[in-house]
Automatic annotation (TrEMBL):
This is LLM class flavin-dependent oxidoreductase. Residues 15-303 form the Luciferase-like domain. Keywords: Oxidoreductase. It comes from the Bacteria. InterPro entries: F420-G6PD/mer, Luciferase-like_dom, Luciferase-like_sf. It comes from Pseudonocardia acidicola.
Amino acid sequence: MTDDRRLGILLLSTTAPERLPGLARLCEGLGFDEIWLAEDYFFYGGFTGVAQALTATERIRVGLGIMSCVARHPAAAAMEIASLDRAFPGRFVPGIGHGVPSWVRQMGLTPRSPMRALEEAVTGIRAVLTGREPYTAEGEYFTFGDVALVHPPLTDVPLYLGVIGEKGCELAGRIADGNVLSVLAPTEYVTWARSLGLQGMSQAGRTGSFSVPTYVLTAVDNDRDRARAAVKQSLAFYLDAVGPTPLTGSIGINDAVSALIAAGGYDALLEGMPEDWIDVLAISGTPDEAAARIEQYWAAGADCVILSPQPADSLETQLKLIAAEVLPRLAR
Protein backbone atom coordinates (compact mmCIF):
# COMPACT_ATOMS: atom_id res chain seq x y z
CA MET A 1 0.00 0.00 0.00
CA THR A 2 1.05 3.57 -0.69
CA ASP A 3 -0.83 6.67 0.38
CA ASP A 4 -2.12 7.32 -3.13
CA ARG A 5 -2.79 3.73 -4.22
CA ARG A 6 -5.10 2.27 -1.62
CA LEU A 7 -7.88 -0.25 -2.13
CA GLY A 8 -10.96 -0.26 0.06
CA ILE A 9 -14.26 -2.09 0.40
CA LEU A 10 -17.71 -0.54 0.90
CA LEU A 11 -19.98 -2.47 3.26
CA LEU A 12 -23.39 -1.43 1.98
CA SER A 13 -26.06 -0.16 4.36
CA THR A 14 -28.19 -3.20 3.46
CA THR A 15 -25.67 -5.28 5.45
CA ALA A 16 -27.19 -6.36 8.75
CA PRO A 17 -25.36 -4.63 11.62
CA GLU A 18 -24.51 -7.90 13.34
CA ARG A 19 -22.51 -8.95 10.25
CA LEU A 20 -20.24 -5.89 10.25
CA PRO A 21 -17.58 -7.17 12.71
CA GLY A 22 -17.06 -10.43 10.85
CA LEU A 23 -16.93 -8.73 7.46
CA ALA A 24 -14.49 -6.13 8.76
CA ARG A 25 -12.17 -8.87 10.05
CA LEU A 26 -12.42 -10.63 6.70
CA CYS A 27 -11.50 -7.46 4.77
CA GLU A 28 -8.49 -6.85 6.99
CA GLY A 29 -7.38 -10.47 6.79
CA LEU A 30 -7.60 -10.45 2.99
CA GLY A 31 -5.26 -7.45 2.75
CA PHE A 32 -7.53 -4.52 1.90
CA ASP A 33 -6.40 -1.10 3.09
CA GLU A 34 -9.68 0.52 4.13
CA ILE A 35 -13.30 -0.27 4.96
CA TRP A 36 -16.03 2.28 4.29
CA LEU A 37 -19.51 2.31 5.75
CA ALA A 38 -22.47 4.44 4.77
CA GLU A 39 -24.96 6.15 7.02
CA ASP A 40 -28.09 5.66 4.93
CA TYR A 41 -31.25 6.46 6.85
CA PHE A 42 -32.69 4.23 8.28
CA PHE A 43 -30.38 1.24 8.07
CA TYR A 44 -27.44 0.71 10.47
CA GLY A 45 -26.13 3.67 12.46
CA GLY A 46 -22.98 5.12 10.96
CA PHE A 47 -20.98 5.72 14.14
CA THR A 48 -22.19 2.44 15.63
CA GLY A 49 -21.16 0.55 12.50
CA VAL A 50 -17.75 2.22 12.43
CA ALA A 51 -17.19 1.36 16.09
CA GLN A 52 -18.04 -2.28 15.39
CA ALA A 53 -15.62 -2.43 12.46
CA LEU A 54 -12.81 -0.72 14.39
CA THR A 55 -13.26 -2.97 17.43
CA ALA A 56 -13.12 -6.09 15.25
CA THR A 57 -9.87 -5.10 13.48
CA GLU A 58 -6.32 -4.03 14.34
CA ARG A 59 -4.80 -1.93 11.56
CA ILE A 60 -7.29 -1.14 8.82
CA ARG A 61 -8.71 2.37 8.46
CA VAL A 62 -12.47 2.76 8.58
CA GLY A 63 -14.31 5.57 6.82
CA LEU A 64 -17.84 6.86 7.29
CA GLY A 65 -19.16 8.10 3.99
CA ILE A 66 -21.30 9.90 4.59
CA MET A 67 -23.34 11.29 7.47
CA SER A 68 -25.80 14.11 6.91
CA CYS A 69 -24.68 17.43 8.33
CA VAL A 70 -28.19 18.12 9.66
CA ALA A 71 -28.92 14.75 11.30
CA ARG A 72 -26.81 15.67 14.37
CA HIS A 73 -25.66 18.92 15.85
CA PRO A 74 -22.02 19.40 14.78
CA ALA A 75 -20.89 19.56 18.41
CA ALA A 76 -22.41 16.12 19.03
CA ALA A 77 -20.80 14.81 15.83
CA ALA A 78 -17.43 16.18 16.98
CA MET A 79 -17.86 14.38 20.31
CA GLU A 80 -18.49 11.05 18.51
CA ILE A 81 -15.52 11.59 16.18
CA ALA A 82 -13.19 12.41 19.06
CA SER A 83 -14.31 9.39 21.06
CA LEU A 84 -13.58 7.02 18.18
CA ASP A 85 -10.22 8.65 17.51
CA ARG A 86 -9.16 8.27 21.12
CA ALA A 87 -10.15 4.61 21.12
CA PHE A 88 -8.58 3.90 17.70
CA PRO A 89 -6.04 6.69 17.00
CA GLY A 90 -5.57 7.53 13.33
CA ARG A 91 -7.91 4.85 12.01
CA PHE A 92 -11.21 6.71 11.62
CA VAL A 93 -12.03 8.93 8.63
CA PRO A 94 -15.39 10.76 8.91
CA GLY A 95 -17.24 12.02 5.85
CA ILE A 96 -19.97 14.67 5.99
CA GLY A 97 -22.46 15.75 3.35
CA HIS A 98 -25.97 16.99 2.73
CA GLY A 99 -27.72 13.65 3.07
CA VAL A 100 -30.17 12.16 0.58
CA PRO A 101 -32.93 14.80 0.24
CA SER A 102 -35.81 12.35 0.68
CA TRP A 103 -34.40 11.03 3.97
CA VAL A 104 -33.68 14.55 5.22
CA ARG A 105 -37.27 15.53 4.41
CA GLN A 106 -38.56 12.57 6.40
CA MET A 107 -36.92 14.07 9.48
CA GLY A 108 -38.12 17.61 8.73
CA LEU A 109 -34.52 18.82 8.53
CA THR A 110 -34.28 20.23 5.00
CA PRO A 111 -32.24 23.47 5.17
CA ARG A 112 -33.04 26.47 3.00
CA SER A 113 -29.41 26.57 1.93
CA PRO A 114 -27.88 23.07 2.02
CA MET A 115 -24.43 24.40 1.12
CA ARG A 116 -24.49 26.95 3.94
CA ALA A 117 -25.61 24.31 6.43
CA LEU A 118 -22.81 21.98 5.33
CA GLU A 119 -20.17 24.70 5.60
CA GLU A 120 -21.34 25.70 9.08
CA ALA A 121 -21.39 22.08 10.24
CA VAL A 122 -17.92 21.13 9.00
CA THR A 123 -16.37 24.39 10.18
CA GLY A 124 -17.94 23.85 13.60
CA ILE A 125 -16.85 20.22 13.83
CA ARG A 126 -13.26 21.14 13.02
CA ALA A 127 -13.28 24.04 15.48
CA VAL A 128 -14.54 21.82 18.29
CA LEU A 129 -12.07 19.03 17.46
CA THR A 130 -9.02 21.29 17.27
CA GLY A 131 -9.88 24.18 19.57
CA ARG A 132 -7.85 24.81 22.70
CA GLU A 133 -10.51 27.17 23.95
CA PRO A 134 -14.30 26.68 24.13
CA TYR A 135 -15.94 27.39 20.78
CA THR A 136 -18.72 29.94 20.48
CA ALA A 137 -20.52 30.77 17.23
CA GLU A 138 -23.98 31.83 16.15
CA GLY A 139 -24.73 30.57 12.66
CA GLU A 140 -27.77 30.45 10.44
CA TYR A 141 -28.30 26.77 11.27
CA PHE A 142 -26.11 25.88 14.25
CA THR A 143 -25.29 27.56 17.56
CA PHE A 144 -22.24 26.80 19.71
CA GLY A 145 -22.04 28.23 23.19
CA ASP A 146 -18.68 27.65 24.88
CA VAL A 147 -18.43 24.09 23.52
CA ALA A 148 -15.28 22.23 24.55
CA LEU A 149 -14.54 18.51 24.46
CA VAL A 150 -13.54 16.91 27.74
CA HIS A 151 -11.83 14.16 25.73
CA PRO A 152 -10.41 15.78 22.57
CA PRO A 153 -8.98 13.60 19.78
CA LEU A 154 -5.46 12.26 20.05
CA THR A 155 -4.64 12.81 16.37
CA ASP A 156 -5.37 15.37 13.68
CA VAL A 157 -8.58 13.78 12.40
CA PRO A 158 -9.15 14.37 8.65
CA LEU A 159 -12.61 15.58 7.68
CA TYR A 160 -13.98 14.63 4.28
CA LEU A 161 -16.99 15.98 2.44
CA GLY A 162 -19.28 13.89 0.26
CA VAL A 163 -20.51 16.22 -2.49
CA ILE A 164 -20.80 16.03 -6.29
CA GLY A 165 -21.46 19.47 -7.82
CA GLU A 166 -18.93 22.10 -8.85
CA LYS A 167 -19.55 24.39 -5.87
CA GLY A 168 -19.49 21.47 -3.48
CA CYS A 169 -16.22 20.12 -4.86
CA GLU A 170 -14.61 23.55 -4.47
CA LEU A 171 -16.00 23.85 -0.94
CA ALA A 172 -14.41 20.50 -0.07
CA GLY A 173 -11.02 21.96 -0.89
CA ARG A 174 -11.68 25.10 1.13
CA ILE A 175 -12.83 23.47 4.37
CA ALA A 176 -12.09 19.73 4.25
CA ASP A 177 -9.26 17.28 3.63
CA GLY A 178 -10.95 15.28 0.90
CA ASN A 179 -14.14 14.50 -0.98
CA VAL A 180 -15.75 11.04 -1.00
CA LEU A 181 -16.94 10.43 -4.57
CA SER A 182 -20.15 8.54 -5.23
CA VAL A 183 -20.72 5.41 -7.24
CA LEU A 184 -21.25 6.21 -10.96
CA ALA A 185 -18.10 8.37 -10.94
CA PRO A 186 -16.09 7.73 -14.12
CA THR A 187 -12.37 8.50 -14.14
CA GLU A 188 -13.05 11.76 -15.98
CA TYR A 189 -15.19 12.94 -13.07
CA VAL A 190 -12.54 11.88 -10.55
CA THR A 191 -9.95 14.08 -12.23
CA TRP A 192 -12.43 17.00 -12.45
CA ALA A 193 -13.52 16.73 -8.81
CA ARG A 194 -9.95 16.49 -7.56
CA SER A 195 -8.90 19.54 -9.58
CA LEU A 196 -11.78 21.54 -8.09
CA GLY A 197 -10.79 20.43 -4.59
CA LEU A 198 -7.21 21.56 -5.17
CA GLN A 199 -8.54 24.83 -6.57
CA GLY A 200 -10.59 25.35 -3.42
CA MET A 201 -7.54 24.67 -1.27
CA SER A 202 -5.55 27.24 -3.18
CA GLN A 203 -8.31 29.84 -2.85
CA ALA A 204 -8.40 29.29 0.90
CA GLY A 205 -4.63 29.47 1.21
CA ARG A 206 -4.46 25.89 2.46
CA THR A 207 -1.58 23.51 1.81
CA GLY A 208 -1.16 19.77 1.96
CA SER A 209 -2.77 16.86 0.16
CA PHE A 210 -6.39 16.46 -0.94
CA SER A 211 -7.95 13.00 -0.95
CA VAL A 212 -10.64 11.69 -3.30
CA PRO A 213 -11.64 8.17 -2.18
CA THR A 214 -14.02 6.89 -4.83
CA TYR A 215 -16.81 4.34 -4.61
CA VAL A 216 -17.03 2.09 -7.68
CA LEU A 217 -19.60 -0.62 -8.42
CA THR A 218 -17.56 -3.80 -8.92
CA ALA A 219 -18.13 -7.33 -10.18
CA VAL A 220 -15.25 -9.73 -10.83
CA ASP A 221 -15.62 -13.19 -12.30
CA ASN A 222 -13.55 -15.49 -14.47
CA ASP A 223 -16.73 -15.58 -16.56
CA ARG A 224 -16.59 -12.06 -18.02
CA ASP A 225 -20.21 -11.99 -19.18
CA ARG A 226 -21.49 -12.99 -15.77
CA ALA A 227 -19.55 -10.18 -14.09
CA ARG A 228 -20.80 -7.58 -16.55
CA ALA A 229 -24.40 -8.74 -16.17
CA ALA A 230 -24.18 -8.39 -12.38
CA VAL A 231 -22.79 -4.87 -12.45
CA LYS A 232 -25.17 -3.81 -15.23
CA GLN A 233 -28.15 -4.47 -12.99
CA SER A 234 -26.64 -2.28 -10.27
CA LEU A 235 -25.85 0.47 -12.74
CA ALA A 236 -29.45 0.48 -13.96
CA PHE A 237 -30.70 0.71 -10.38
CA TYR A 238 -28.47 3.64 -9.43
CA LEU A 239 -28.97 5.54 -12.69
CA ASP A 240 -32.73 5.24 -12.28
CA ALA A 241 -32.52 6.34 -8.64
CA VAL A 242 -30.33 9.42 -9.08
CA GLY A 243 -30.91 10.41 -12.70
CA PRO A 244 -28.52 12.63 -14.64
CA THR A 245 -25.86 14.28 -12.45
CA PRO A 246 -22.41 15.87 -12.86
CA LEU A 247 -21.05 12.31 -12.54
CA THR A 248 -22.61 11.13 -15.78
CA GLY A 249 -22.43 14.62 -17.26
CA SER A 250 -18.63 14.41 -17.16
CA ILE A 251 -18.78 11.84 -19.99
CA GLY A 252 -21.68 13.45 -21.87
CA ILE A 253 -24.42 10.88 -21.32
CA ASN A 254 -26.96 12.89 -19.30
CA ASP A 255 -29.40 13.27 -22.20
CA ALA A 256 -29.27 9.55 -22.89
CA VAL A 257 -29.79 8.74 -19.19
CA SER A 258 -32.84 11.05 -19.10
CA ALA A 259 -34.28 9.49 -22.24
CA LEU A 260 -33.99 5.95 -20.90
CA ILE A 261 -35.52 6.92 -17.56
CA ALA A 262 -38.43 8.55 -19.38
CA ALA A 263 -38.83 5.46 -21.55
CA GLY A 264 -39.29 3.09 -18.62
CA GLY A 265 -36.84 3.67 -15.79
CA TYR A 266 -34.92 0.66 -14.53
CA ASP A 267 -36.19 -1.78 -17.15
CA ALA A 268 -35.42 0.60 -20.00
CA LEU A 269 -31.96 1.31 -18.61
CA LEU A 270 -31.21 -2.38 -18.19
CA GLU A 271 -32.35 -3.14 -21.73
CA GLY A 272 -31.06 -0.06 -23.52
CA MET A 273 -27.86 0.79 -21.69
CA PRO A 274 -24.90 0.87 -24.12
CA GLU A 275 -22.24 -1.67 -23.26
CA ASP A 276 -19.56 1.02 -23.03
CA TRP A 277 -21.37 2.54 -20.02
CA ILE A 278 -20.33 -0.55 -18.09
CA ASP A 279 -16.73 0.10 -19.08
CA VAL A 280 -16.71 3.73 -17.88
CA LEU A 281 -19.04 3.65 -14.86
CA ALA A 282 -17.92 0.46 -13.11
CA ILE A 283 -15.19 -2.10 -12.58
CA SER A 284 -16.23 -5.40 -14.09
CA GLY A 285 -14.99 -8.45 -15.92
CA THR A 286 -12.09 -10.80 -15.40
CA PRO A 287 -9.43 -10.25 -12.73
CA ASP A 288 -7.09 -8.82 -15.39
CA GLU A 289 -9.76 -6.34 -16.52
CA ALA A 290 -10.60 -5.37 -12.95
CA ALA A 291 -6.96 -4.74 -12.08
CA ALA A 292 -6.47 -2.59 -15.17
CA ARG A 293 -9.54 -0.52 -14.34
CA ILE A 294 -8.41 0.02 -10.73
CA GLU A 295 -5.09 1.27 -12.06
CA GLN A 296 -7.00 3.75 -14.26
CA TYR A 297 -8.86 5.13 -11.24
CA TRP A 298 -5.60 5.57 -9.34
CA ALA A 299 -4.07 7.33 -12.33
CA ALA A 300 -7.09 9.66 -12.51
CA GLY A 301 -6.48 10.79 -8.92
CA ALA A 302 -8.54 8.44 -6.76
CA ASP A 303 -6.04 7.76 -4.00
CA CYS A 304 -8.35 5.10 -2.56
CA VAL A 305 -10.56 3.04 -4.88
CA ILE A 306 -13.44 1.75 -2.76
CA LEU A 307 -14.96 -1.33 -4.34
CA SER A 308 -18.70 -1.95 -3.95
CA PRO A 309 -18.96 -5.67 -4.80
CA GLN A 310 -22.00 -6.75 -6.82
CA PRO A 311 -24.20 -8.64 -6.35
CA ALA A 312 -24.27 -7.89 -2.64
CA ASP A 313 -25.59 -11.33 -1.72
CA SER A 314 -22.28 -12.89 -2.77
CA LEU A 315 -20.10 -10.42 -0.87
CA GLU A 316 -17.76 -12.89 0.82
CA THR A 317 -17.21 -14.75 -2.46
CA GLN A 318 -16.39 -11.49 -4.25
CA LEU A 319 -14.03 -10.35 -1.50
CA LYS A 320 -12.07 -13.60 -1.57
CA LEU A 321 -11.87 -13.64 -5.36
CA ILE A 322 -10.69 -10.02 -5.54
CA ALA A 323 -8.08 -10.66 -2.84
CA ALA A 324 -6.79 -13.83 -4.52
CA GLU A 325 -6.94 -12.80 -8.17
CA VAL A 326 -6.92 -8.98 -8.39
CA LEU A 327 -4.67 -7.76 -5.57
CA PRO A 328 -1.62 -9.69 -6.86
CA ARG A 329 -2.05 -8.01 -10.26
CA LEU A 330 -1.87 -4.47 -8.88
CA ALA A 331 1.31 -2.40 -8.83
CA ARG A 332 1.30 -1.06 -5.27
